[in-house]
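A.,

Following up on our hallway conversation. Structure tokens first:
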């Protein structure tokens, strides 16, 4: 698996793990943003930092439920 590859992934299935926090600049987000995300594409054999995302129709975005996911329950899908 290659990591930190520069370029674009188009029309490939990927998983993205992201973080949001307005209180953690330069800790687990960059100094000027509230978010930080990484992508994993097993089919392309690469992973790396995400700078931009375009979602296609049918894509699912999973977010935590307000106040956190219920105990034993999943996040909310949009």
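Then the amino acids I'd put at each of the 78 positions:
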């Amino acid at each position: 698996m290659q990591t930190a590859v520069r370029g674009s992934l188009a029309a490939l299935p990927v998983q993205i793990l992201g973080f949001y926090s307005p209180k953690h600049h330069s800790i687990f987000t960059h100094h000027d943003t509230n978010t930080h995300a990484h992508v994993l594409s097993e089919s392309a054999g690469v992973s790396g930092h995400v700078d931009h995302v375009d979602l296609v129709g049918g894509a699912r975005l999973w977010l935590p439920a307000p106040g956190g996911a219920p105990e034993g329950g999943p996040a909310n899908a949009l």
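The beta strands are 2-3, 15-20, 35-41, 46-49, 62-63, 76-77. Curious whether your intuition agrees with the design.

B.
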